[in-house]
Amino acid sequence: MRKLLSLALAAALLPTLAQAGMTTRTLSYDVEGTMVESVLVFDDAVATKRPALVMVPNWMGVNAAQVEKAKAIAGQDYVILVADVYGKVTRPTNADEAGKAAGAMYADRAALRARVNAALDQLASAKDAPVDAAKLGAIGFCFGGATALELARSGADIAGVVSFHGNLATDLPAQAGAVKAKVLALNGADDTYVPTEQINAFNKEMQSAGIDWQFVNLGGAVHCFAEPDQNNGPGCAYNERAAKRAFRMMRDFFAEAFASQ
Fold it and tell me: Which of 23, 97, 99, 132 is 20 to 30 Å apart from 256, CA to CA?
């Protein structure tokens, strides 16, 4: 499965894929009494400082597949921290466990924001990593996309966030003037998990808060369209065409966002 995932991601991310000198490092830290373990990923074959991204995984949390995904995205372009927002003792192994873990975090947005902001702090201050601390961003997939949006809504001092097929709803909507990050939300046009009402509310929220934002519907795509390891049926299916377009949009978005830093 991991080999198939790497091949699929390579197809979506070429020609940027470069993993020859990839280093991974586990970062353990406490967030309000909860120990978490995130994974730092970067190519140490190149010493040049580069932009850095917090990457929040889907509802399965930090695992080997998500670390491989981070490597494929990072290449020589980014340092990536695969963010643990569940806590080190919570590592879902199936959909039921993942649903409970994600549901608990959705029910406590303040805790979710604290943990993703702590991950950002860890990334910005990572020792012996080629992080350009003036160029920080965040991405996330599904549950992780929703979490990346919460990071933006919290007022984190970052250039931008990108949500891949993430839930758009929130109990703590963005406040006018509070959001510093640019926002790009990438959605499958046929995603049944993100209804039209939720999209309309998100668009209104972004407009009302005065955010520099973009919302993109990718035709023919459903939930999970950017994740080959989450090809779980008609409602959650990888779409190579949509994934390629989405990752190109992500890179163009960050190139513009970081250029102004």
Answer: 23
